[in-house]
Design a protein that fits this description.
By secondary structure, this protein is of the alpha/beta class. It has twelve helices and 14 strands. 41% of the residues lie in helices and 19% in strands. The strands form three sheets. Strands 2-1-3-4-5-13 form a six-stranded parallel sheet. A six-stranded mixed sheet has the order 9-6-10-11-12-14, sandwiched between helices.
């Protein structure tokens, strides 16, 4: 595993700066450009390049539904992007990158195909289809009968987390998640993590609406929502929380530590994604690993099949893995 020293050397900053950036220290004043460089180095050092069978040439577009600034707050999409870019580099393919706030610029370019990372409304899907028939959606499947997609079964991820917590005796389990809308604000996007959490907890007879919290998928909202939970429940605070992504989990950890609440002795925290920062926060974050780089690589391979003539749509589901670290390790609740 890469160390903080390794990241600092490659990013050209101090070890202390790397540590504070990876822990989302709100008191640190550094530019977004510096944060981006540190995050990208951390992800790249985690990334293992794989041999490819052949070299290709050409140009594809990469469209992200996040803006460049939003990407710094949720490294999940940055990690997928790096997987795409590294795979394309191995194949000798030129990548033209567009963020959501530059959507219109995409329409003026000549491309062989398109990889769309994130969630896109029905209107946006139709606009993209007008640009090229060679499209792969990553982290979203607008219509599996028509479009290629690479996705994760987030419902399965929730099942793994709850099974672990139940096995360790947890019954009072809270949820901190987020709400999202398509960027054109045409609809709210349903989160399978929240839906599955509610269903499974209700089936066990353990569901409490008062333990459900929702904001955005950010460190700041993870912090604020955990603070709210602590105020509202005091000594009755759940013994474990499932956070819908690692950014939320990092914020929640910080709130618990600020309040002097021991993790994992009093409260367990488990997130989702296993982005590079999960290993470096304190205590190290338990999480469900999403193989984001593989998602990006698979999207490129799938797009190349389309460009070469495959017509039948494919929906590829990438497996996940529960990784237990210090934020939930070895705390059997009686």
């Amino acid at each position: 595993m890469a160390t903080i020293k390794d990241i600092a050397q490659q990013a050209g900053v101090s070890i202390a700066t790397v540590s504070r950036v990876l822990n989302y220290d709100a008191t640190l004043s550094v530019s977004d450009e510096t944060k981006k460089r540190i995050f990208e180095v951390a992800e790249a050092l985690d990334y293992k390049k794989k041999a490819v069978r052949k070299q290709e040439t050409g140009k594809i577009a990469l469209l992200q539904w996040y803006t460049e600034k939003e990407e710094l707050g949720d490294l999940y999409y940055m990690s997928i992007r790096l997987g795409v870019e590294n795979r394309c580099q191995s194949h000798g393919i030129q990548v033209v990158r567009f963020f959501q706030d530059h959507f219109e610029e995409l329409k003026s370019g000549e491309i062989q195909g398109l990889i769309a990372i994130g969630k896109f409304s029905e209107k946006q899907v139709k606009e993209l289809e007008a640009l090229t028939e060679n499209i792969v959606y990553v982290d979203y499947s607008p219509d599996e009968e028509r479009y290629d997609s690479v996705v994760v079964d987030f419902g399965k991820a929730v099942e793994k987390v709850l099974a672990f917590l139940w096995e360790n005796g947890h019954k009072q389990i809270g949820y901190i998640g987020g709400k999202e809308m398509f960027k054109d604000e045409t609809a709210v996007i349903e989160d399978p993590r929240e839906r599955t959490f509610k269903r499974l907890m209700k089936e066990k007879g353990l569901f409490h609406e008062a333990f459900m919290y929702s904001g955005s998928y950010s460190v700041d909202d993870g912090y604020l929502l955990m603070k709210k939970a602590i105020r509202e429940h005091g000594q009755e605070l759940p013994t474990a929380f499932f956070a819908a992504n690692d950014s939320i989990a990092v914020g929640a950890l910080r709130a618990l530590l600020d309040e002097g609440i021991a993790v994992p002795e009093r409260v367990n925290i488990i997130g989702v994604n296993d982005v590079s920062i999960a290993k470096y926060v304190f205590p190290a974050l338990s999480t469900v690993k999403i193989y984001t780089e593989l998602m990006g690589e698979t999207a490129v391979d799938t797009l190349l099949e389309r460009i070469e003539g495959r017509k039948t749509p494919k929906k590829i589901t990438i497996a996940t893995k529960l990784i237990i670290r210090d934020s939930s390790f070895g705390t059997k609740v009686e």
